[in-house]
Amino acid sequence: MVVLEKAPAKINLSLDVLHKRNDGFHEVEMVMTTVDLADRIELTLLDQDKIKVVSESRFVPNDERNLAYRAAKLMKEHFQVKQGVRIFIEKNIPVAAGLAGGSSDAAAVLRGVNKLWGLEADIDELAELGAEIGSDVSFCVYGGTALAKGRGEKITHLPSPPPCWVVLAKPAIGVSTQTVYQKLNIKQAEHPDTQAMIKALEEKDFAGICTHVANTLEGVTTKLHPEVNQIKEKMSEAGADAVLMSGSGPTVFALVAQDARVHRIYNSLKGFCPEVHIVRMLGNRETTC
Ligand code: ATP
């Protein structure tokens, strides 16, 4: 038996860091939405009691460090499953990019082995389990558009943004989320107006969404990697409606309403950035292949 799952990347329309908690995590408020750049996860039932990860990406570990492996292990232990699974990951999402690629793979495995092993857990239970793997996994279990609070695991679903193009550009650097949080000065950083972003989504107000994109972590990453600002400038000059760094970076995204501008923005980045993608905002909760 084989189960296929789509593991879409996310972007942060807004990301606010409120304060550092006593448990070491940061309290955040993030408005996230999925885009149609996705890893493809193929799960094959194994009769033996083992988990095997196969990925052709040299940036992703094929052992128990892989978040997809950890998701399968968690499900096995939680539901006392005796069967195994072979997890094949077709990696299309840039790694360590601020696009939650690993979290989305883990979420896809939670959904997928639930079907493969006939466990019948509901999606809220999978999202709750996902929080044990990583802060973005709960959101990725659902996909779509949502407000994520707490350390990212408290999810409130939101209306999807109006359809538009998204240009993603990742410079040839990886960013450690941990380092960015360590260097963040919460008081001095820029903070988004999360409520205004939510209102814009509720009103399907594309201009409002563009006005309110903001990311508290952006200032830290741009200081470490000035390329991020150069990408933002190039995108703006080429006619993007909004530009922002996603997550802790370094990927920058442009929101673009007009078809005619998308290729201009893409071309302005091609050659400057090794990874540039034109994708659509997914917005809805589409997670099957
Ligand atoms: P986030 O936006 O949630 O901070 P990210 O997009 O910045 O995530 P990932 O692509 O998820 O980062 O990768 C972060 C690290 O996790 C990498 O160093 C990578 O080696 C490791 N990793 C483990 N499993 C995976 C996976 N399935 N896909 C990608 N990276 C993985």
From TrEMBL:
What's this protein's name?
4-diphosphocytidyl-2-C-methyl-D-erythritol kinase
What EC identifiers does the entry list? 2.7.1.148
Binding of ATP, residues: 94-104
All copies of domain GHMP kinase C-terminal, residue ranges: 197-273
Q: Identify the pathway.
A: Isoprenoid biosynthesis; isopentenyl diphosphate biosynthesis via DXP pathway; isopentenyl diphosphate from 1-deoxy-D-xylulose 5-phosphate: step 3/6
Please list the GO biological process terms of this entry.
isopentenyl diphosphate biosynthetic process, methylerythritol 4-phosphate pathway; terpenoid biosynthetic process
Entry's InterPro entries? GHMP_kinase_C_dom, GHMP_kinase_C_sf, GHMP_kinase_N_dom, IspE, Ribosomal_Su5_D2-typ_SF, Ribsml_uS5_D2-typ_fold_subgr
Output the superkingdom of the source species. Answer: Bacteria
Q: Does the keyword ATP-binding apply?
A: yes
Q: What broad taxonomic lineage does this protein's source fall under?
A: Bacteria, Bacillati, Bacillota, Bacilli, Bacillales
Catalyzed reactions per annotation: 4-CDP-2-C-methyl-D-erythritol + ATP = 4-CDP-2-C-methyl-D-erythritol 2-phosphate + ADP + H(+)
Record-level Gene Ontology MF annotations:
4-(cytidine 5'-diphospho)-2-C-methyl-D-erythritol kinase activity; ATP binding
Q: Which sites are catalytic?
A: 10, 136
User: Which keywords annotate this record?
Assistant: ATP-binding, Isoprene biosynthesis, Kinase, Nucleotide-binding, Transferase
